[in-house]
Amino acid sequence: MTLDEGAAPPQPGDPPPLRGAVLSTDTATASGNGTTGPTQARHTTEPGPDVVPVARPDGTLAWPARPLAADALAKLDADLGQVQVARLGGRRIYRRRIALLAEACTPETFGLVLDWLSSTRRASAATKRTYVDDLRRVWAPLARELGHDAFAVGCLSREHVRMWRLRQEAAGVAQRSIARYVACLSSLHVHAAGRLDTPLVNPVTEDDRPRIPTGNTATSTPVLETHQVRAVAACAGSDLDLLVVVLLYTLAGRVTEICAADVSDLAVESDRTVLRLTRKGGKQRALPLPDRCTRLLGRVIGDRTSGPLLLDAAGRRLDRHDVDRISTRLGRAAAVLPGRDLTPHVWRASRITHMLDAGIPLAEVQEFADHANPATTIGYWERRNRAHRASAHVDQAITVFDDLAPDPQAPR
């Protein structure tokens, strides 16, 4: 099932879409015989306007003909974007997330999920994309394994989630990942419970939410020291590689923000080049660029005046996976973070930590990093101080052995 690229979402004369509850409080979901099955409860309101995309026989999605619903869904589709699903030779195959979501869910749950994603509590496009990917890649496969044709709200029990968690732990899946997956499932069920007139049991309990210790340096994002940042940059074999490193570190940016930037987002303000980024939560920021970064950008962009800021060799927009591969490759070449990948978020965590090391006030760091909660910024500071204190403690302890045989590795 695909959504036609470049086509206007709704067109008069499209096949009538499924009647369901999404993006509206005056809609309802009902089965063909007027009853509801065991895994999908009925909505509390009566059927209303056609507002949900429906699958055509050829596998494409037909958009609702009502302009209000079509416009709302077009916005949601733009937020969800597309995702790479395959690679044929050197050609990458992309599909729209909304179409993949429609395939992963029953029609009734598809409507509920769209309604859930449209809430202001999930304003960030990155959050919406992550939730959709978790539903289609984690929970829909589990539903099919258990004998369901597709994922539906209520199709998983607490026992299913418990057994799934134990399986993930046995496979070595990170506790943070498990916590994110169950948070997605729980949030959807909490939202759905407010839309249904029959009781809906949340399959996620506190007993299956991994506890992530704050400041746990074993599982937290690692931080590069400044000499390691320079070492990685020195391994860049092209202007594009170096630009990726410079932008991620200098702007303390999130990889999705930088990948989404266009050439048209560059501007000159007060004799300084700025890059306008759409940050988490839809916040618009104009960030000044250092002169060296501006010159590097000029070499990479050339005479282009439009299109994506960052392109690969084939002229396609770099996505977060491309940037992750560039960063990881450079990290291995520089031999930093042994046994761990140099992910894009390491650059952000490193820049924030280095700002705190330099004595920049917490409030300024919070503003620059666009942390909605000051506790997030404080967490970087606490983790750094904890590491310094631990180093001081062990260095003090080793002095007990100073009068013993000299350390053969110590400088003479």
Automatic annotation (TrEMBL):
Residues 1-50 are annotated as: Disordered. Keywords: DNA integration, DNA recombination, DNA-binding. It holds the Pfam family Phage_integrase. InterPro entries: CB, DNA_brk_join_enz, Integrase-like_cat_sf, Integrase_catalytic, Integrase_recombinase_N, Integrase_SAM-like_N, Tyrosine_recombinase_XerCD. Residues 24-42 have a biased composition (Polar residues). The keyword Electron transport does not apply. Residues 9-18 have a biased composition (Pro residues). Residues 107-193 form the Core-binding (CB) domain. It comes from the Bacteria. PROSITE patterns: CB, TYR_RECOMBINASE. Residues 219-394 form the Tyr recombinase domain. PANTHER family: PHAGE INTEGRASE-RELATED, TYROSINE RECOMBINASE XERC. This is Integrase. It comes from Actinomadura fulvescens. The lineage of its organism: Bacteria, Bacillati, Actinomycetota, Actinomycetes, Streptosporangiales.
